[in-house]
Prior knowledge:
With 127 residues, this protein is α/β, with parallel strands linked by helices. Helix content is 38%, strand content 25%.
Amino acid sequence: MIVVGIGCRRGSPAARIAEAVGDALAKAGIPVDRVDALATPEFKEQEAGIVDAAARLGLPLRPVDRSRLDAVQPLCATRSERVEAATGLGAVSEAAALAAAGRNATLVLTRIARGGVTCAVARGDGA
């Protein structure tokens, strides 16, 4: 299972999020049709830009609960002090991707940041 984790500033537009996802996938060498889902923390699941970007890309959006995000923090490659101060999580997009990719998840692409949007790509066994 291949999952793109998303984090963003409140109000980020869908076009910017979809562009960041495209950039991340290009960097990882993965076509969008090989991606199983976008993932984001539950506290971002109603963010209009994320919801709309998932629809534009034709991908399901998987919200990830806090306990799963916390559990994968040690596997995350990058940390943001600003994000940690705001959310209590050092990594959002990497954690969402890892948690949603399931067992044996690993990062294929560490976090990239584009105009207030972060994306990371993980591969795992699902479930």
